Amino acid sequence: MAKDVRNLTGSIVALVTPFKDDGEVDFAALDRLVDFHLENETDGILVLGTTGESSTMTDAEDVAVAQHVINRVDGAIPIIGGAGSNSTTESLNKAKCLQMVGCDALLLITPYYNKSNEEGIYRHFTEVLDKTEVPSILYNIPGRTGCSISENNVVRLAEHPNVMGIKEASGSISYATSVARHVSGEFRMYSGNDDMIVPILSLGGSGVISVWANVQPKLCHDLVTSYLAGDCQSSLRLQLDGLDLVHALFCEVNPIPVKAALAMMGLCEENYRMPLYPMAAANRARLENVMREAGIIG
C-alpha cells in the first residue's frame, strides 16, 4: 500500500483507458499516459472509473489495466481502482481482485439502474467495505446513477474503518455543504466536478478526482496545492481561467471529449467502445480551438 493513502490530497486523475483500432487495450499508450502524469506531478491515479470506460470492460481487462498501471507507477503515487457495479456481488468481486493486484484504495459507486432504497444503498457499500481491507472512497454522482448517497448514509458510512472519503460529483453546493459538516482527518471530500474544485476546497475538501487532469495535470496539481498552501487567489485564477476548457471537455458525455483531446495531443488513439462514439464536428472544433488558445496544442 502506498504510504499515507488515507491522507491523500491534490489532483487525482480519472485516467482514460486507451484502446487500439480493434478495441483491445493499448498498453503502450497506457504507459505514455502514466508517464505523462508522473512527469507532471499528478498526485494519484484512478483507473477503471467512468472516464476509463470500465462499464464496457471485462473483469480480466480490469485486472490487467490495474496491474499494468501499478507496475508502471512502481509506488511513486497511489493507485485507486474503480470497483463500481449496480450488482453488489459484482462490486465485491471487483474490489477483491483490485485489492489483490495491489490497488492502494477503491472507488465505490452507488448502485445504478436498480438504485435500491436507503437501507439497500447502505448495505451495498458495507457488503464491500466489510470484506475488503484497503481504504475506499464513496462515489456520489446521481446524474449517472439515478440515486444519491443521503447525508444520513454519509454519516453512517463515514464511521466505517475502511472508508477514507467521498468523491462528490452531484454538482450541488447545497449537498456538498451538508457533507462538509462530516469531513475530518479520517473522512475526506474530493471534488468530482472540475468546474467546482475551488468551491469544494473552500468547504474543507482535500482535492479533486479529475477528468481535466488528463489534459493539464500540472495545472490541476497546482490549483489544489496552491489552495491548500493558503494561496487561494492563485487557485481561483487557475479555476476560472480553465473554465472554457473544462466546459469543452464536457460538451458531450465523458469521456468522449477528453479522449479526443488526448488524441490531439498524440498521447493515445481516439478509439471508444460502443455505445460511445466520436464527437460531433462542431464540438470537436470547439474543443480544438480552446486547446489551441490554452497552448496545449499548436
Outline type: globular
Strand content: 5-15%
Helical fraction? 40-55%
Low-pLDDT parts are none
If classified by CATH, what would the architecture be? Alpha-Beta Barrel
> How are strands sequenced across the largest beta sheet?
1-2-3-4-5-6-7-8
Number of DSSP E strands:
8
**Assembly state (oligomeric):** single chain
Number of domains: 1
- Mean pLDDT over the full residue set: 96
Structural category: alpha/beta
Q: Quick one: biggest sheet?
A: 8 strands, parallel, barrel
In short:
The chain is an alpha/beta fold and 298 residues long.
Question: Could you outline the blueprint of secondary structure elements for this entry?
Answer:
Blueprint: E1 10-14, H1 27-39, E2 44-47, H2 59-73, E3 79-82, H3 88-101, E4 105-109, H4 118-130, E5 136-140, H5 142-145, H6 151-158, E6 163-168, H7 173-180, E7 188-191, H8 197-202, E8 207-210, H9 217-228, H10 232-241, H11 243-249, H12 256-264, H13 281-293
Parallel strand pairs: 1-2, 1-8, 2-3, 3-4, 4-5, 5-6, 6-7, 7-8
Helix pairs in contact: 1-2, 2-3, 3-4, 9-10, 11-13, 12-13
